[in-house]
Amino acid sequence: MLEQRTLGALTVSELGLGCMGMSFAYGPGDDDESIRTIHRALELGVTFLDTADIYGAGVNEELVGRAVAGRRDDFVIATKFANRTDADGNRFIDNSPDWIRQAVDDSLRRLGTDYIDLYYMHRRDPDVPIEESVGVMAEQVQAGKVRHLGLSEVSAETLRAATTVHPIAALQSEWSLFTRGLEAEIVPVARELGVGLVPYSPLGRGLLAGALTSTESLAPDDFRRNNPRWQGENLEHNLALVQKMRDLAEQAGCSPVQLALAWLLAQGDDVVPIPGTKRVKYLEENTAAADVNVPADVLAQLDALGEAAGDRYQGAMMQAVER
């Protein structure tokens, strides 16, 4: 059984389960297998589930709601607002008070629950003062609809300003052996403020698993097909890093997946990675990472690997992070 960690005042399992790929971004879903995966997660002690209203235009929240029905209080559910799409399918960020109030009610309905354990602002619109948005989020806590607040992909400055309005339990940002820029400023400020860290894409969107070497086998609608890190020279550079990872995993006696997650877990007791999967077998491999003791010399070599080549997102999506 997994140990527990704290995100601010919120207690969660030391590993969470990212549910996005069950309905969104990574090819076709399988609802039955996804629900089995969530149920198996509970058996393994993974009680921290992560979703968002943008994942499948609400479909992912509905899936999570069906999976936890009848055992809601056994799980800690995190969801997010702010990413929206217009009538033409173009994405935009909405941090307005009216949207926050509507979005939380919509998420509660889709999840089939009367409270959300952790409610994140998914992305920040710099034209809306963070103090205003967090103030409206805090209203949802006072109303009993939300228990804890979080932010995603914000700068250290924004995080600091947000905590003057209401305690922030968690910061969810991309963090892995491939993505380490937040360690310079954002992680220290989060720790100064008592904000827990929830790394998403802890396996480099699957690259760190070592099985994928190109985009050819990906589904036509898999967003990684157009991800800069999966293109040309960037991919060649990143696959060379993956090979070094595979060699170090062999030294540590575990899979590359488990080594990548164990490295993150070793970064501090306030770190709770949320590897995503829609299949039981990968969930079980991920969860076993909590039992991996990485030798100090292997940790040092991992620290020295260097980051992946290429931006994390394309164009406008990259401009929306760390604001």
UniProtKB/TrEMBL annotation:
<dbReference type="InterPro" id="IPR050791">
    <property type="entry name" value="Aldo-Keto_reductase"/>
</dbReference>
<dbReference type="GO" id="GO:0016491">
    <property type="term" value="F:oxidoreductase activity"/>
</dbReference>
<dbReference type="GO" id="GO:0005737">
    <property type="term" value="C:cytoplasm"/>
</dbReference>
<keyword id="KW-0560">Oxidoreductase</keyword>
<feature type="domain" description="NADP-dependent oxidoreductase">
    <location>
        <begin position="14"/>
        <end position="306"/>
    </location>
</feature>
<dbReference type="InterPro" id="IPR020471">
    <property type="entry name" value="AKR"/>
</dbReference>
<dbReference type="InterPro" id="IPR036812">
    <property type="entry name" value="NAD(P)_OxRdtase_dom_sf"/>
</dbReference>
<dbReference type="Pfam" id="PF00248">
    <property type="entry name" value="Aldo_ket_red"/>
</dbReference>
<protein>
    <submittedName>
        <fullName>Aryl-alcohol dehydrogenase-like predicted oxidoreductase</fullName>
    </submittedName>
</protein>
<dbReference type="InterPro" id="IPR023210">
    <property type="entry name" value="NADP_OxRdtase_dom"/>
</dbReference>
